[in-house]
Amino acid sequence: MDTTLPPIVGRAHCFGDNIDTDVIISGKHMISTELADMLPHLFEAIAPGFNNRVQPGDVIVGGRNFGCGSSRETAPALIKAAGIRAIIAESFARIFFRNAINLGLVAVECPNVSTGVSDGDVVRYDPATGVVENLTTSWRGQGTVLPDFLVEILLAGGAVEACRRKCT
Fold first, then answer.
1. Torsion over CA of 143, 147, 148 and 149, rounded to 10 degrees?
2. Given a cut of 70, is residue 45 above it in pLDDT?
3. CA–CA gap between residue 141 and residue 33 (Å, rounded)
């Protein structure tokens, strides 16, 4: 099996510091077990209409402490279901980071990314080198190179499938 995560290129949707899981998806909208029923409410408290603007392959750029708050797994699951390919943030709440990876959603840290990227810019992340580039403005930053065991989980589509592959 190839263990190389390909480069990710997408249009940025930018958020600031301390984006908690309650603004990603408010508890009042967790009324179904179907992600499609909750997608219209993704980020609605801070980015009304986000679900109508996001396109498959887009990326989220965040500041410090992205995904703080409750450990609700629904938050990264909805972000992935919306077609977001990766979240690149200055830092993550640890439980959000692991939930994202375990669900097969790329999450990488990159210092100063929130000052180097604006909404609508095209961003490229090279998993092999960790380099994050703003292709719109030529800004560059050094992001995380994920360890092989996390890349295996991402390539499998999440932790459950990765375990299933190892056990068969």
1. -130
2. yes
3. 38
